[in-house]
Design goal:
The protein is mainly alpha-helical. It contains 5 helices and no strands.
Length: 129
Protein backbone atom coordinates (compact mmCIF):
# COMPACT_ATOMS: atom_id res chain seq x y z
CA UNK A 1 0.00 0.00 0.00
CA UNK A 2 1.33 3.47 -0.81
CA UNK A 3 0.48 6.90 0.54
CA UNK A 4 -0.43 10.02 -1.42
CA UNK A 5 3.21 10.62 -2.42
CA UNK A 6 3.80 7.06 -3.64
CA UNK A 7 5.84 5.95 -0.62
CA UNK A 8 5.33 2.45 0.74
CA UNK A 9 3.47 2.59 4.05
CA UNK A 10 5.02 0.23 6.59
CA UNK A 11 3.60 -0.94 9.93
CA UNK A 12 5.53 -0.86 13.20
CA UNK A 13 6.40 -4.56 12.76
CA UNK A 14 7.92 -4.06 9.30
CA UNK A 15 5.05 -5.53 7.27
CA UNK A 16 3.54 -3.36 4.56
CA UNK A 17 0.22 -1.86 5.60
CA UNK A 18 -2.74 -3.90 4.50
CA UNK A 19 -1.07 -7.30 4.92
CA UNK A 20 -2.74 -9.34 7.60
CA UNK A 21 -1.09 -11.75 9.99
CA UNK A 22 -1.37 -15.41 9.09
CA UNK A 23 -4.42 -17.03 10.69
CA UNK A 24 -2.18 -19.51 12.52
CA UNK A 25 -0.62 -16.66 14.55
CA UNK A 26 -2.61 -16.04 17.70
CA UNK A 27 -1.91 -13.06 19.93
CA UNK A 28 -0.89 -14.29 23.38
CA UNK A 29 -1.58 -12.45 26.61
CA UNK A 30 1.48 -10.71 28.05
CA UNK A 31 1.34 -12.67 31.31
CA UNK A 32 1.60 -16.01 29.47
CA UNK A 33 4.27 -14.88 27.03
CA UNK A 34 7.72 -15.78 28.39
CA UNK A 35 9.45 -12.77 26.81
CA UNK A 36 6.80 -10.20 27.70
CA UNK A 37 8.28 -6.76 28.38
CA UNK A 38 7.93 -5.33 31.86
CA UNK A 39 5.36 -2.60 32.45
CA UNK A 40 8.08 0.06 32.36
CA UNK A 41 9.47 -0.97 28.98
CA UNK A 42 5.98 -1.39 27.59
CA UNK A 43 5.03 2.10 28.80
CA UNK A 44 8.25 3.64 27.47
CA UNK A 45 7.87 1.67 24.21
CA UNK A 46 11.30 0.13 24.26
CA UNK A 47 12.70 -3.38 24.15
CA UNK A 48 12.97 -5.02 27.55
CA UNK A 49 16.49 -6.43 27.83
CA UNK A 50 17.45 -9.31 30.10
CA UNK A 51 19.11 -7.12 32.76
CA UNK A 52 16.35 -4.50 32.84
CA UNK A 53 16.38 -2.75 36.21
CA UNK A 54 12.59 -2.29 36.14
CA UNK A 55 11.46 -5.83 35.24
CA UNK A 56 11.58 -7.44 38.72
CA UNK A 57 9.54 -4.63 40.27
CA UNK A 58 7.09 -3.59 37.53
CA UNK A 59 5.43 -6.76 36.14
CA UNK A 60 3.47 -6.53 32.89
CA UNK A 61 0.23 -7.40 34.74
CA UNK A 62 0.29 -4.08 36.67
CA UNK A 63 0.98 -1.26 34.19
CA UNK A 64 -0.64 1.47 36.32
CA UNK A 65 2.00 1.03 39.03
CA UNK A 66 4.77 2.18 36.69
CA UNK A 67 2.60 4.78 34.98
CA UNK A 68 1.94 6.50 38.33
CA UNK A 69 5.60 6.34 39.39
CA UNK A 70 6.73 7.67 36.01
CA UNK A 71 4.21 10.51 36.10
CA UNK A 72 5.40 11.73 39.51
CA UNK A 73 9.13 10.87 39.63
CA UNK A 74 10.17 10.16 36.03
CA UNK A 75 11.67 6.96 34.65
CA UNK A 76 15.22 8.32 34.59
CA UNK A 77 15.15 9.31 38.25
CA UNK A 78 13.68 5.96 39.29
CA UNK A 79 16.32 4.13 37.26
CA UNK A 80 19.11 6.14 38.91
CA UNK A 81 17.64 5.48 42.35
CA UNK A 82 17.37 1.73 41.75
CA UNK A 83 20.95 1.55 40.50
CA UNK A 84 22.28 3.44 43.53
CA UNK A 85 20.67 1.38 46.29
CA UNK A 86 21.46 -2.17 47.36
CA UNK A 87 19.57 -4.93 45.52
CA UNK A 88 17.90 -6.20 48.71
CA UNK A 89 16.38 -2.74 49.32
CA UNK A 90 15.03 -2.15 45.82
CA UNK A 91 11.65 -3.83 46.26
CA UNK A 92 10.89 -1.75 49.36
CA UNK A 93 11.99 1.40 47.54
CA UNK A 94 9.74 0.67 44.55
CA UNK A 95 6.78 -0.07 46.81
CA UNK A 96 7.38 3.21 48.66
CA UNK A 97 7.63 5.14 45.39
CA UNK A 98 4.43 3.54 44.12
CA UNK A 99 2.60 4.37 47.37
CA UNK A 100 3.85 7.97 47.34
CA UNK A 101 3.01 8.40 43.65
CA UNK A 102 -0.54 7.11 44.14
CA UNK A 103 -1.01 9.42 47.13
CA UNK A 104 0.31 12.42 45.20
CA UNK A 105 -2.01 11.72 42.30
CA UNK A 106 -4.99 11.60 44.67
CA UNK A 107 -3.95 14.71 46.65
CA UNK A 108 -1.11 16.69 45.00
CA UNK A 109 -0.70 19.10 47.93
CA UNK A 110 -0.79 16.97 51.05
CA UNK A 111 -0.04 13.50 49.58
CA UNK A 112 0.94 11.04 52.33
CA UNK A 113 0.88 13.69 55.07
CA UNK A 114 -2.91 13.40 55.38
CA UNK A 115 -2.66 9.69 56.17
CA UNK A 116 0.24 10.29 58.56
CA UNK A 117 -1.74 12.89 60.51
CA UNK A 118 -4.78 10.60 60.62
CA UNK A 119 -2.80 7.71 62.10
CA UNK A 120 -0.96 10.04 64.46
CA UNK A 121 -4.33 11.19 65.86
CA UNK A 122 -5.49 7.58 66.18
CA UNK A 123 -2.27 6.71 68.02
CA UNK A 124 -2.71 9.53 70.56
CA UNK A 125 -6.39 8.59 71.05
CA UNK A 126 -5.32 5.02 71.72
CA UNK A 127 -2.56 6.17 74.07
CA UNK A 128 -5.01 8.33 76.07
CA UNK A 129 -7.46 5.46 76.59
Amino acid sequence: MTDYYGRTVVRYDGRPKGNKRPSSHKHMASSTHPNAPCAACKFLRRKCIQGCVFSPYFPPEDPTKFANVHKIFGASNVSKLLNEIAPHQREDAVNSLAYEAEARLKDPVMAVLVQFLYFKGKFFDFKRN
